Amino acid sequence: MKYFFAITYMLLLANASLTAQNRTVPGSTPFVISPNAICNNTENYIPYNPKYTPVKRIRLAIHIFGKDDGSGNLQNTPEHLDYIQKVFNHVAWFYNNLDTMRPASPLYSYISDSRIRFVIDTIFFHQNTDDWDFRKYTAKFSAQKNDTIYSENSAFQRAQKLYNKYVAENRQLSIRLKDSALHIFLLEAKYFSNRGMAESINTKRWVFNIGAFDMYAKGKNHWDPGMVLAHELGHALGLVHPYDYEQCADLPASPKGVTNNMMDTYPNEGRGITPCQLGILHYNLCGKSGRIGDVVIRDWCSNHPDTIVKIPSGDTVFFAGEKYFLGDVYIETGAVLVIKCTVSLPAGASFYIAEKGTLILDGGILTNLCGQKWNGVKLEKRGKFLGIFNRKSKSVLDIRNNGKIENATINITEAKFE
Predict the structure, then answer these.
(1) Which residues of the chain have pLDDT under 50?
(2) Cis link prior to 50 (omega < 30° from 0)?
């Protein structure tokens, strides 16, 4: 018998993981729960409880186009850089301070913070008169008005060409910025002031704002460009106009400008985002749809000891969507946590289960998604947290329906084998 346990011990160390199906780890008891949730359901990514939804930070690369002599747009000066920062501070403010929807659907419930942030990584200043004038190649002649008018199709073609030139085909641009940043283009155009566009939803490529410098020249207005960019970033992350079609049940389709939704338009566009829309954003940013997840800064690959997630005593909590935590998770006495999907912890982090606390991996996976080893699950015994094979612990770890613990360095030094 001693040889059997010695072999088991060595295998566990070699694999540094534990996988179980429909079994209960020693020291736990069976627990009956509801059927498995669907990890691909966007509703399970709605940030109803902010402490269980770590902030997702999106990396931005800003491209500012001036004329050949550098004039005609914001420049690399302290005053202009301060203005650019204020514009994006307002973008952040829109997403951090959501407004109550007006009018509100009966299915709507208010969430104050999107849990999404935007981080300026790099600002590029380009000097090219042809590229500066966005209108030059995006207009067609109108015989009726004897003037040029805006052509949406040609505008998108123009935007794609600029993206290809300055990003996709730019050999001097780092792979990191090409693949892991959302690119914001600030251009100017005669008769165009504070307009925006984004490439087709959820493709991770570009967002354009035309006329930010015009807003600066007219009183340093950073509010309006911030609103336009917040709207266009919503498109890039996966949202549509509510007047185009009904994407969410809690935001019925309506005529233009009727709601204060961030994705609506003049005269009532504002800071409203519904829970369904937030679920779509977080689902996409988890890499579940398209490539927009590539632009999220991987904060969860580093251990942040000050970001402990606690499941309070007496609560039963379900994680039915993917979670990428930045530090330890602690299940208090009498609390129950049911994990249905993937939960990632950084290297050095642990999953602590207090005595009479319960963790159920019902098809869920505890892992590290950064190619690292995390510290595994620790069960409490008389105030000390030991390895998962602590047979005398009153903590409960129940693994079922192909749930598993992987990429973990499992501490079994105090386990007793008899």
Answers:
(1) 1-37, 140-150, 411-418
(2) no
Q: What is the pTM of this model?
A: 0.85
The pLDDT tens digits for 15-74 are: 333 333 333 333 333 333 333 447 999 999 999 999 999 999 999 999 999 999 999 999
User: For position 221, what pLDDT does the model report?
Assistant: 87
Token reading at 120? 């300026």
- The single residue listed with the structure tokens 């030059």 is 136
Half-sphere exposure of 262 (CA within 13 A, CB side): 31
Choosing among 3.40.309.10, 3.40.50.2020, 1.10.260.100, 3.40.390.10, the CATH entry for 39-296 is 3.40.390.10
How much is the pLDDT for 389? 54
Distances 106 to 99, 102, 141, 210, 262 between C-alpha atoms, Å: 16, 11, 47, 37, 19
For residue 133, the model assigns a pLDDT of 85
All structural domains of the chain with their residue ranges: 39-296, 305-405
pLDDT of 410 reads 66
CA distance 392 to 402: 25
> What is the secondary structure of 327-371 as a DSSP string?
S-EEE-TT-EEEE-SEEE--TT--EEE-TT-EEEEES-EEE-TTS
CA angle 90, 138, 77 (to 5 degrees): 40
What gap in Å lies between CA 5 and CA 391, rounded to an integer? Answer: 14
Helices within 113-170 (DSSP H only): 129-132, 152-163
Strand ranges (E), 188-335: 195-198, 206-210, 309-311, 316-319, 323-324, 329-331
Report the pLDDT value the prediction gives residue 182, as an integer from 0 to 100.
Answer: 95
- Distance between CA atoms of 51 and 70, rounded to whole angstroms? 46
Q: Which helix (H) or strand (E) holds 126?
A: strand 116-127
Helix (H) or strand (E) holding 14: helix 2-15
Can you list the pairs that 217-220 forms with residues at least 24 positions away whose Cβ atoms lie under 8 Å? 220/83
What pLDDT score does 343 carry?
Answer: 96
User: Residue 188 has what DSSP assignment?
Assistant: B
DSSP 3-state assignment of 2?
helix
**Which residues touch 14 (CB under 8 Å, ≥6 apart)?**
none
